[in-house]
Amino acid sequence: MPKRPPITNRVRELREAHGQISQSALGDAVGVTRQTIIAIEQGRYSPSLETSFRIARLFGVGLEDVFGWEGD
Amino acid sequence: MSFREKSAWVMAVVMAITGLLYIGLVHGASPDAPVMGPLLPYVLAVIALSVVVQVVLAVMSPREASAPMDEREKLVAAKAGQVSGVVLAVLVVLSGGVYVFLPHGNMLFHHLLGGLIVAQIVDYAVQIRLLRRGY
């Protein structure tokens, strides 16, 4: 089982808070597939810095409002 | 299941089936027969089946089929290529080792092609695992 990245995120929460944007629509908006959005939300994949900024900008928040660091 | 994962599954099955076909053709032929005998039907079968399954997948998911790989899929493809490259290198060395003790050019060719087939199946298997369980 691959080790989970130590990065947490609030993507699902923000998606639901912004009018229930679908995973597919969010993926289209930031240039990744729906499966990648699912992997990000489940903490199985840490997106690139560019995609992280795109997600944060889409929701109109800062990067650290979307992503956090877990652990040391 | 994403388009890439479906594609990896069907291509792994295509490579496994055609690989078995190739083994059957090699076993059915004389050891000194030209390698083109089993090679030609194998290559034709791989091309034909690959085209058919990819067309079917593209018809089922035209939007995903035409979309380029995203950043995660590129990482998965790179990792799978890295693992399958190691597998191929090991199998090439083993084929060379067999040739040292059993110097037969045709068998060397078949072993190397077999190594290529196995490495390709490993590539698809790693892609499936990473796409399903996380990179």
What does this structure look like?
The complex is a heterodimer of chains A (72) and B (135). Chain A is mostly helical. Chain A contains five helices and two strands; from the N terminus they run βαααααβ. Chain A has helices at 11-17, 23-30, 34-41, 49-59, 63-66, and strands at 7-9, 67-69. A two-stranded antiparallel sheet of chain A has the order 1-2. Chain A starts with 6 loop residues before the first strand and ends with a strand. Chain B has 135 residues and is mainly α. Helices cover 86% and strands 0% of the residues of chain B. Chain B is built from five helices and no strands. In chain B, helix 1 packs antiparallel against helix 2, helix 1 (3-28) packs antiparallel against helix 5 (105-133) and helix 4 (71-101) runs antiparallel to helix 5. The radius of gyration of chain B is 17 Å and the shape is flat. Classes of the chains: A mainly alpha (72), B mainly alpha (135). The interface between A and B is medium-sized, with 17 and 13 residues.
Measured by residues with Cβ under 8 Å of the partner chain's Cβ, the largest interface is: A-B, 17 and 13 residues
Mean pLDDT of chain A: 90
- Which class do the helix and strand fractions of chain A yield? mainly alpha
Strand content of chain B: under 5%
List the helices and strands and how they pair.
The complex is a heterodimer of chains A (72) and B (135).
Chain A: E1 7-9, H1 11-17, H2 23-30, H3 34-41, H4 49-59, H5 63-66, E2 67-69
Antiparallel strand pairs in A: 1-2
Helix pairs in contact in A: 2-3
Chain B: H1 3-28, H2 36-60, H3 62-66, H4 71-101, H5 105-133
